[in-house]
Amino acid sequence: MKVLVVGSGAREHAIVRSLVKDQVVDAVIAAPGNPGIDGLALSEPLADVTDSAEVLAIAQRHGVDLVIIGPEAPLVAGVADVLRDSGIDVFGPSAEAARLEGSKAFAKDVMSAADVPTGLAHVCTTIEQVIDAMDALGAPHVIKEDGLAAGKGVVVTDDRDAALAHAEACLAKEGGSVVVEEFLDGPEISLFVLSDGVTVLPLSPAQDFKRVGDDDAGPNTGGMGAYSPLGWAPEGLASDLVARVAQPTIDEMRRRGTPFVGVLFIGLAMTSRGPRVIEFNARFGDPETQVVLARLLTPLGGLLKAAATGRLDDYDRLRWADDHAVTVVVASHNYPGTPRTGDPIAGLEEVEGVPTAYVLHAGTTLDGDGRLVSSGGRVLSVVATGADLSQARERAYAAVELVELDGSHHRSDIALKASRDEIRVT
User: Fold this and answer.
1) Structural domain of residue 285, as residue ranges?
2) Considering the entire predicted model, what is its pTM?
3) Domain boundary among 149, 166, 181
4) DSSP symbol at 234
5) For 15, left (φ over 0), alpha (ψ -120 to 50), or beta?
6) Tell me, what's the pLDDT at 145?
7) Closest Cα to residue 400, out of 388, 386, 411, 389?
């Protein structure tokens, strides 16, 4: 089987890394890929991942049997539709189904119809509506841009002025709207659920860290680290969420005539009233994918092909390593603001000397002299596994210390509370 992976980040690097271990996968092509992926797969240039015609041309040129679309933008833009219409199997939802991520208002409507437990929410198109919603729901204020925002369109704050400023910035955009939500207390969980449009199959839950600084300080980012599994999560959580959230949502999407094929990313809070969905995404999350796939023993290529072709019911259960996995993101100077790029990266060969540790590329490129340099905000995901969470953390941070990138920063507390058994579900 030949597989094309669309995307260029650490998520796609993790997917490619898993695919090349699958005996049914003969070749992996990445578009556009990155310097880390180049060592594992053939990379094809792709200036715009939302360019359906070019993605189709690459898939046809290589005669691929499956296309895996990593980022959300091409899904919302309908790249999967063009590929399917051309007879190519795709792991990734249609544009209509991807509205579960592309529009938070649409996602809330689906949750309501499917009786999915979630927080109260108001969709607002004027600042007056925002003020009324904030008054009704109280602080902390949760203001979400209704469209795609690369994980940085959400503000959670007690500062009323800051909340209003974010809402005004979102509303100022063409067709701008925001969702004002009830604040959900409790630890957060990310759960990926594979779907072939009918059958759903959960992966192992993970937890990520959105704020840029230790102790969840500072603004939201695309994610600064993650770990899996969650030793503190209630027994049977994944099965419970399939029954209460995933299956009803997939059933509702099929009822609407827009079956969801791909991965439904459920972000939820374990509140004092039970699990409540914060949001849906229509693709694998980053950086959670890096730790979930680090533990998955079931061959990935065959699994995603089954999802793309309506055969997920061939799988009774998935196989997982007993290890724990941690990833720490190394970010550029000034991220999540305007990141500085072009800084040389060194020390990656030394990381190979740390047991189980490896580096996944996110925002890297080669300069004119062939040197590896930074090209984005989140530059690298450093991953390690261990017999327990403390050992996985120790190895991951030992590897991070070997990475040389001027002005870079990372959180020092990824999975720290969990390793100390300090997380409680009330």
Assistant:
1) 187-314
2) 0.92
3) 181
4) P
5) alpha
6) 86
7) 411
